[in-house]
Amino acid sequence: MKLRTALLGAAASFALAPAAFAERGADGHVNIIYWQAPSILNPYLSSGTKDVESASMILEPLAGFDEKGELFARLAEDVPTLANGGVSEDLTTITWKLKPGLLWSDGSAVTSADVIFSYEYCTHPEGGCSQAARYEGIDKVEAVDDLTVKVTFTAPKPNPYNAFVGSTSPIIQKAQFADCLGAAAQQCTDANFGPIGTGPFRVTEFKPNDVISMEANPNYRDPAKPAFATVTFKGGGDAAAAGRAVLETGEFDYAWNLQLAPDVLAGMAAAGKGTVINAFGTLVERIEMNMTDPSPDLAEGERSTVKHAHPILSDMKVRKALSMAIDRELLVEVGYGSAGRATCNLVPAPEMFASDNTECLTQDVEGAKALLDEAGWTDSDGDGVRDKDGKKLALLYQTSTNAVRQDFQALIKQWWSEIGVETELKNVDASVFFGGDPGSPDTFQKFYADVEMYANNFDGTDPEPYLSQYLCDKIPGPDNGWQGENINRYCNPEYDALVAELAKTGEIEKRAEIAKKLNDMLTKDSYTIVALVDRGRNSAHSNTLGGVVLNTWDSELWNTSDWFRVK
Fold first, then answer.
1. Tally of CA atoms within 13 A in the half-sphere of 124 that contains its CB
2. What totals of helices (H) and strands (E) does the chain contain, helices first?
3. Neighbours of 473 (CB within 10 A)
């Protein structure tokens, strides 16, 4: 199907939960547990899924993606298309109309000024916005009237559904964040911890890296929703404890991202108190190779910055050898079972965007050794660790604390030792690792290690904004509060040019071809990203919680307004 044809059609309808609510708050209290604790409730200042998803109960975009990856209107009256006149014939503008009568949770009116401000907030050059890729290619955002916003692109934009679409690109209140532009963004603690929103719930108390207390938004646009009056959103612990809290003890109603070995999860589910739900999307467990030098011998502000290339990993032969040594099929068997698939791709889905890149699926230890020999890394002193010019082939490998990830680390360390690489393992509490605190040395954005492992995915079914994260100007550093999206500091002008070509390409097959090329440039052509596992999402809900629809294309909490208590 051509993208232009898709633009001519109406947006997908929102899948309603199988219940009609008689009264807001009638079902009392609901308990949610995320074993990675939220550290901030402003998704523009964090790339962490746990921060984006917790905030999605409070802050909303103009449109979102449903469980099929299809667009539906949230704050907008409808999704603009060519057919309804919302997208211009030359594809250079998209015009959004807000639903009339929308209120912020403090009772004030939502207007086009808030939409424009959200754009200005994220695109401020000193703000370090974690979601800046969603605003690529915009020339200006202007008000037509109080409820209408016109976005003008710098060139025809065949996929105009990036800005203000999905949980990573919500509307924030201008009045609350007016003094938080640019360098001041990180200092606005009250706003970042307690944003005023339009979602079904509002914050009553937030203890970072611990717990969020919420109550039903009294000004939510549907007077009968949400069914729950209050929410406890507990963070921290580990995946096993979160799974037990829903599936075995029934203490919690919903547990996110149960990254557990298949037999462990099955044993919990056997208790009969809850249901495991799962689905595949675009979530890929990967190893990122640091293209810059993280040495602690460098001055603060210069570590892991483009001022200093990595002394070992700048050589593509080394990066490729590290990938070749890994047995991805065994990783899947150990960590995920049927909920995982070995992959070489950063973009594993939708199918039309997935490259036929399969070279990495066969482990090749001997080939990896030969490649390191070719690169000049030999074991000159016979201690089992390769060296070159007096430097040991030694790497610091970090990830978040999780049983499956530590199993992966142990296996990969062993495989790397077989090819002569010395590996030091480090794991960091997930709430800290994904927290985005510019003052912490242990965030995945700061990347004070040689390689690091985590998983990430993208909103919706088009990978353009996801692939745009690896542009040269998206590199985290001290000048942007360490909030850029280009985690491994990859910078390739050819890649940047191809992203620009993708942005202006409308024919869907051609878009898929370009996306595959971009995927391959990051993976098999450069090995700056070493994809490991295409992960299905495993979460769980209690048998007394209704209305849950697992969504791998947007926030898992996308429809909490429709959750209800099964009587």
1. 26
2. 15, 20
3. 13
| CB contact burial 407-443 (16+ within 10 A = b; e otherwise) | ebbebbbebbeebbbbbeeebbbbbbbbbbbbebebb
Strand runs labelled E in 442-506: 451-456
Residue 6 has a pLDDT of 45
Structure tokens at 443: 């965030």
- Structure-derived torsion over alpha carbons of residues 153, 156, 160, 162, reported in degrees to the nearest 10: -60
Tokens 């109309």 correspond to 97
Quote the CA–CA distance of 485 and 491 in Å, as a whole number. 12
Between CA 540 and CA 550, with CA 544 as vertex, the angle to 5 degrees is 35
Neighbours of 139 (CB within 10 A): 12
Q: What's the CA gap between 337 and 261, in Å, rounded?
A: 7
Q: Where does 248-378 have alpha helices with state H?
A: 262-269, 316-324, 328-335, 365-374
What is the rounded CA–CA span in Å between residue 92 and residue 245? 50
Q: Which two tokens stand for residue 281?
A: 């999307």
CATH code assigned to 281-460+520-536 = 3.10.105.10
**Mutual angle of helices 403-418 and 328-335, in 10-degree steps:** 150
- First-last CA distance in the chain: 44
Residue 47: the pLDDT is 80
**Residue 133's closest CA among 456, 387, 560?**
456
Nearest by Cα to 461 from 350, 346, 310: 350
Scan for tokens 């910055």, then name that residue. Answer: 305
Length reported for the chain: 567
DSSP 211-222: EEEEEE-TT-SS
For residue 38, cis peptide bond before it (omega within 30 degrees of 0) = no
Task: State both tokens at 128.
Answer: 């370090």
Q: What is the DSSP string of 395-434?
A: EEEEEES-HHHHHHHHHHHHHHHHTT-EEEEEEE-HHHHT
| Averages of pLDDT over each 10 residues, the chain, 567 residues | 43 39 88 96 92 97 95 97 96 98 98 98 92 94 98 95 96 98 94 98 97 98 98 95 97 96 93 95 96 95 95 98 98 93 96 94 98 97 96 97 96 98 96 88 96 92 94 92 91 97 91 97 97 95 98 96 96
- And the tokens for 365? 């230890």
**Residue of 365, 459, 521 whose CA lies nearest to 66:** 459
Percent of the chain that is helix, strand, coil (3-state, to 5): 30, 20, 50
Cα–Cα distance, 476 to 486 (Å, whole number) = 7
Sorted by sequence, the CB contacts under 8 Å of residue 387 that are 6+ apart come out as 377, 378, 379, 380, 381, 393
The pLDDT value recorded for residue 13 is 34
**Distance (Å, whole) CA 387 – CA 249:** 52
Q: Which two tokens stand for residue 249?
A: 């003890």
Task: Evaluate whether 231 touches 58 at the Cβ level (below 8 Å).
Answer: no
